[in-house]
């Protein structure tokens, strides 16, 4: 039941499960249906591979040695809104509610039919694809793999949301309204209506750099302009509306 539509979008799924047999069966089944699939056996490996690869969806087992799937989801939700589907052998409704409260998009109880899992994955991916298309229609500033939506104040990396605090959103919006333009602390403060203190600006700059720069010590996007302040360098001649 090869799915041409999934192949067209080149979606990449990460399976996190300590059961090697389940991982390999799911990987083969999903790949046969047009998805790219990577798999790891614990959350430590997941964090490592997510540091170098971008995934469209996570399939996470809850009961694993070491950090369990719920705690892992709760941790990554602090900075990452990647869609996730939880797997568990526990049928207690409270476990399902915990997963949804921590930010899971869907939930399946083992044992399950692989075809049902595929359908649930398809539904999640269709939703994020639709949201991505709607996002592209709105005004946004692009730099590297990032896009900042000036209407929603949301930051995306390869169309995957990156968590920003309210102050980080407002500050990044200042730079995105006039990219490749240097801003002093006074410029920023005036733009924000005097609602951000000098120290708060410095802290927010540092936090944003941790989220968008490969090495915050040598920023290529949110750069320091000597004698003035900072500017967002898009490395593009103009931005798309």
General description of the model:
It is a single chain. Helix content is 42%, strand content 20%. The protein has 241 residues and is an alpha/beta fold. It folds into 2 domains: 4-136, Rossmann fold (3-Layer(aba) Sandwich), CATH 3.40.50.2300; 140-232, Winged helix-like DNA-binding domain superfamily/Winged helix DNA-binding domain (Arc Repressor Mutant, subunit A), CATH 1.10.10.10. The strands form 3 sheets. It has a 5-stranded parallel sheet, with helices on both faces. A 4-stranded antiparallel sheet has the order 6-7-8-9, with helices on one face. Strand 7 (146-149) and strand 8 form a beta hairpin. Helix 7 (166-177) packs across helix 9 (198-212). The chain is elongated. Residues 237-241 have low confidence and may be disordered.
Amino-to-carboxy terminus distance: 39 Å
Q: What is the overall shape?
A: elongated
Q: What is the mean pLDDT?
A: 86
In the CATH hierarchy, what is the superfamily of the largest domain? Response regulator
Query: Structural class of the secondary structure composition?
Result: alpha/beta
Proportion of residues in extended strands: 15-25%
Order of helices and strands: HEHEHEHEHEHEEEEHHHEE
Total domain count:
2
Helix content: 40-55%
Number of strands: 11
Biggest sheet: strands side by side, in what order? 2-1-3-4-5
Poorly predicted regions are 237-241
CATH architecture assignment name of the largest domain: 3-Layer(aba) Sandwich
CATH class of the largest domain: Alpha Beta
Major sheet attributes: 5 strands, parallel
**Helix count, per DSSP?**
9
């Amino acid at each position: 039941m090869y799915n041409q539509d999934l192949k067209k979008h080149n979606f990449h799924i990460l399976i996190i499960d300590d059961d090697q047999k389940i991982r390999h069966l799911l990987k083969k089944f999903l790949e046969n249906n047009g998805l790219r699939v990577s798999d790891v056996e614990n959350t430590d490996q997941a964090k490592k591979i997510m540091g170098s690869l971008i995934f469209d969806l996570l399939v996470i087992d809850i009961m694993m040695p070491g950090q369990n799937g719920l705690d892992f989801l709760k941790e990554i939700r602090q900075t990452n809104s990647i869609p996730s589907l939880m797997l568990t052998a526990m049928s207690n409704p409270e476990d399902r509610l915990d997963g949804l409260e921590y930010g899971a998009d869907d939930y399946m109880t083992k044992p399950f039919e692989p075809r049902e899992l595929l359908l649930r994955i398809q539904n999640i991916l269709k939703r994020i694809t639709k949201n991505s298309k709607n996002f592209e229609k709105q005004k946004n500033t692009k730099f590297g793999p990032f896009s900042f939506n000036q209407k929603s104040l949301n930051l995306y990396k390869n169309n995957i949301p990156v968590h920003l605090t309210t102050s980080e959103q407002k500050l990044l919006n200042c730079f995105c309204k006039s990219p490749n333009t240097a801003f002093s602390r006074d410029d920023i403060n005036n733009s924000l209506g005097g609602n951000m203190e000098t120290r708060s600006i410095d802290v927010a700059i540092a936090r944003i750099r941790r989220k968008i720069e490969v090495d915050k010590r040598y920023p290529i996007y949110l750069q320091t302009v000597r004698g003035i302040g900072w500017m967002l360098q898009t490395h593009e001649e103009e931005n798309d509306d």
